[in-house]
Amino acid sequence: MEGSFSRTIRAIGFAPGSPLPLDGLVPISDFLEPCAQKEYYMTVSVVYWSGTGNTRAMAEAVAAGARSAGAKVDLLEVAAADPDSVLRAEAIALGCPAMGAEVLEESEMEPFVQRLESKGLGGKPLLLFGSYDWGDGQWLRDWEERMGKAGASLVSHDLKAHLEPGEQDIAALSEAGKKLAGSGQ
What we know:
By secondary structure, the chain is α/β, with parallel strands linked by helices. 37% of the residues are buried. It has 7 helices and 6 strands. Strands 1, 2, 3, 4, 5 and 6 form a 6-stranded parallel β-sheet that branches. It has a single domain (41-181), classed as 3-Layer(aba) Sandwich (Rossmann fold). β1 (43-48), α3 and β2 form a beta-alpha-beta unit. The chain is globular and about 45 Å long.
């Protein structure tokens, strides 16, 4: 009984048992080497709202850490961020200072976060951070709990700075950015 390989060979004009011509065949290594040389870049979206520049400085530190780990990073003010584009990234970082009675900024960041929640965060690696003036950072703990319930996979916790971020804060944020960039691999 003739197998499918033999039928295929006969269909293209070769007799069974005759040697196949090797002219024009390309070694498989010519195909594999370019694939092996192609580098993978994780995509990270860092979205923030900042009134005084403190949270912007924190966002820049997270972005720098992710870039140093080899990620392709989009650093965006929340007003310029599109939820669908942000969700296409493999990992997300969101930054917002505590406002009012320790809540997120209500005119831009809160609606943006609500849109992300409504679209679903199912297991998406997420980093939250921000600065505060009064209180003890309850807004960040509440935000972390909220995003965990929305299905996000929190990469780090308690990334907050009292007023202006200091050197230790910036170093911790940069390390968290590296960790975030490695979370999807």
